[in-house]
Amino acid sequence: MNNLLKKFGFVNVLGATNVGKSTLINRLVGQKVSIVSQKVQTTRNNIIGIYCLDYSQVVLIDTPGIFTPKRKFDRAMINSAWKSIKDADITLLMLEADKDLDDNTLTIAETFNSNKIYDSKFLICVINKIDLVKSEILLKLVEKVKKYFTCKEFFFISALNGDGVIELKKFIAKNVPMGDWHYPEEHVTDIPYSLLVSEIIREKLIIRMHQELPYGIAVETESWNQLQDGSIRIDVLIYVQKKGQKKIVIGTKGENLKFIGIDCRKELKSMLDKEVHLFLYVKVRDNWDKSPDYFKNLGLDYNV
Ligand SMILES: Nc1nc2c(ncn2[C@@H]2O[C@H](COP(=O)(O)OP(=O)(O)OP(=O)(O)O)[C@@H](O)[C@H]2O)c(=O)[nH]1
Ligand SMILES: [Mg+2]
Predict the structure, then answer these.
(1) Is the pLDDT of residue 120 over 80?
(2) CB 67 within 8 A of CB 208
(3) Considering only CA atoms, which residue is closest to atom 26 of ligand 1?
């Protein structure tokens, strides 16, 4: 490939929580690098997904969704989302086709419009979940968006079924600046396997657990060992904040944990292409969301 023609750029995906940012990243990359759930506040830190198209290499930054923070940990999550804009060549603002502009999106607009750094950014509006609405609605939504944001382009997609995603993928690749690629062509992410594993387990917990519980859970890969027969033993700690939550996570006669273990093992086996022995332990640690180490592991700023 002619090096002089190469393009490279960072693109961050910003939006309210639950709009489908991680679903889009996974689709653009072509495999799961970021976990997805039907509940809000699934993504907790910036996750990188990488794709190459023609002469371009694009590094996508998935970010925690914007919402009203309650805890220190929430503030750190949101802070990391905003930080990702500073280095981005292109920002994708993601909205849901089936929802009016909500407070979270208006907060994004306020921050954008009151800050010169964001003001000059190459902003693309991506309206997701078009599979849920009739097309007439989209024009009205675009008119409203234009009142708050100055977008270079609008895209209408369904990250879930892929509609419109190829066009967006090509547009991004075309519009990143000239430059050398930073990663080998086959790389789809730079997150370590230990984090990917704990995220996949957290995803299964979020999907299976009800109500507030997911927000009180943290997951950490404690150890990872390749055994002589080529299989991998992974030990994972699940932290909950209260004794009662531990019981719920484990379930009657360990049913929940067993189900989650089977589900995760299956996914990890196919991801790693190796036999996996997974050991899950549940511990009560009421202050994990104030632990500097946990922030550090996720790359979050503790002093926010
Ligand atoms: N119908 C429909 N659902 C979608 C689409 N894209 C994503 N979803 C669903 O929306 C929910 C949220 O998706 P995520 O990708 O986790 O959203 P997110 O913006 O990353 O959420 P946070 O990380 O919590 O901020 C999941 O249940 C997805 O399956 C879409 O195009 N159509
Ligand atoms: Mg997400």
Answers:
(1) no
(2) no
(3) 38
Please tell me the residue having the least CA distance from ligand 1 atom 8.
20
The per-residue pLDDT for range 156-175, each reduced to its tens digit, is: 999 999 999 999 999 999 99
Atom number of ligand 1 nearest to Cα 26: 15
Largest interatomic CA distance in the chain: 62
Q: 22 CB under 6 A from ligand 1?
A: yes
The confidence band for 66, taking pLDDT boundaries of 50, 70 and 90, is: very high
What integer is the mean pLDDT of 34-52?
95
How far apart, in whole angstroms, are the C-alpha atoms of residue 118 and residue 39? 28
The secondary structure of 9-67, three-state, reads: EEEEEEEECCCCHHHHHHHHHCCCCCCCCCCCCCCCCCEEEEEEECCEEEEEEECCCEC
- Tens of pLDDT, residues 182-220: 999 999 999 898 999 999 999 999 998 877 778 889 999
Q: Does ligand 1 lie within 6 Å of residue 158's CB atom?
A: yes
Determine contact, residues 93/42, Cβ cutoff 8 Å.
no
Q: How far is the CA of 198 from the centre of ligand 1 (A)?
A: 20
Atom of ligand 1 nearest to the CA of 44: 23
Residue in the structure block whose two tokens are 């009662």: 244
Cα–Cα distance for residue pair 206/209, rounded to 1 Å: 5
What local confidence, expressed as pLDDT, does residue 119 receive?
Answer: 65
A 10 A CB-CB count for 102 gives 14
Q: What pLDDT sits at residue 215?
A: 86
Q: Identify which ligand lies nearest to the alpha carbon of 28.
A: 1
Rounded CA-CA distance 34/49 in Å is 8
State the distance from the centre of ligand 2 to the C-alpha of 215, rounded, in angstroms. 14
pLDDT greater than 90 at residue 1: no
Distance 74 CA to ligand 2 centre (A): 14
Q: Is 20 in the pocket of ligand 1 (CB under 6 A)?
A: yes
pTM score above 0.85: yes
